[in-house]
Write a structure and sequence with these properties.
The chain is 22% helix and 29% strand. By secondary structure, it is an alpha/beta fold. The two termini are 17 Å apart. Flavin-adenine dinucleotide binds next to strand 4, strand 5 and helix 2.
Length: 292
């Protein structure tokens, strides 16, 4: 393994092994498959003490059904209130899809490393999300917007398969009001769509080719989250554009299962992605064999 350059590291999260009683206080349908769940810890003292960082995840327990890991989609500055954007794919998430406000759940965590936005102050930030990858990315987005003056140029590139699958569309105008460059692209058109059609990498290539590469310099930090197939292409383009590997942060969350280093399903070699991830810098990813 090569020596790692001096860099900002993914923030190590404090690990808690404690389950909180919580209530689903609101449910908002986002698309056909995803809903946003607002969840509040029941105990006021626990609410005040519950601290997380952008990029961390919690285990959500449905009594009698089990538990599963979900990234926190909301800002850490809102203590004790969590928002989880959940796609209904299997046993637990489909059951959750039928649950309404007032349902009681268990929350453990927060777990994992985080996007070190606190160490990116003064830098330009480029956030890139594909599909459901916007769920974990929304937390650093909101955190950065709430402290907008601390950062340089902020750009978001977000791609989805279809316009109807874009998440958080109702917030884009608000994000743009904070002097954020937001570019959205879809793989396939649908009636009414007037934006670009293609892959995220095309937007990135166009920006680099258009001479805006000077915005992607040493002072740029990038946060990338999306399907595994997207990572390598996006990260390699960022490196070509001059973003240092140790300033590109990715979330490798799909490789996990229990989230607590117990089930041994997520290890890459001797690295447990649930304990040492889900957020890694790209330098570490390149040195983790078979990480992508
Ligand atoms: C750290 C971490 C953070 C996560 N954050 C989020 C999040 O913010 N929002 C979210 O919706 N999901 C997230 N996930 C994925 C989520 O944990 C799974 O979707 C969930 O465990 C599925 O549980 P289930 O019981 O409904 O599905 P299961 O019954 O366990 O699975 C049923 C079927 O669905 C497939 N499946 C499971 N997960 C997925 C998936 N993610 N995509 C496509 N197919 C899948 C399985 O392969 C299986 O075939 C995260 C996972 C990790 C490890």
């Amino acid at each position: 393994m090569k020596t790692k350059p001096e860099s900002i590291q993914p923030g190590a999260g404090e690990q808690f092994e404690y389950s909180y009683k919580a209530e689903i206080t609101n449910v908002f349908p986002l698309t056909r498959m995803e809903k946003l769940y607002q969840i509040q810890l029941v105990d006021a003292k626990e609410r005040a003490e519950f601290i997380f960082q952008p990029g961390q995840f919690v285990m959500l327990e449905l009594p009698g059904l089990g538990e599963a890991p979900f990234s926190i989609s909301s800002s850490p500055l809102r203590r004790g209130d969590l928002e989880l954007c959940i796609r209904a794919v299997g046993n637990m998430t489909r059951f959750l899809d039928r649950v309404g406000r007032g349902a009681m759940v268990g929350i453990s965590g927060p777990f994992g490393t985080h996007f070190p936005v606190e160490k990116m102050e003064g830098e330009d930030i480029l956030l890139i999300a594909g599909g459901l990858g916007i769920a974990p990315l929304r937390s650093p987005i909101l955190t950065i917007l709430e402290q907008r003056s601390r950062y340089g140029r902020v750009d978001i590139i977000y791609g989805a398969r279809r316009p109807s699958e874009l998440l958080f569309g109702y917030e884009y105008a608000m994000w743009r009001r904070f002097d954020v460059g937001l570019e959205i692209i879809v793989d396939h058109e649908e009636p009414g769509w007037q934006g670009p059609v293609g892959l995220i990498t095309e937007i990135l290539r166009a920006r680099i080719g258009a001479g805006s590469a000077d915005a992607l310099r040493q002072r740029t930090s990038a946060i990338v989250c999306g399907p595994p197939v997207m990572f390598r292409f996006v990260c390699d383009l960022l490196v070509q554009a001059g973003v240092p590997v140790e300033k590109i942060f990715v979330s490798l969350e799909r490789r996990m299962h229990c989230g607590r280093g117990k089930c041994c399903r997520c290890n890459i070699g001797s690295t447990y992605t649930c304990l040492e991830g889900p957020v890694f810098d790209y330098w570490s990813v390149l040195n983790l064999k078979e990480a992508i």
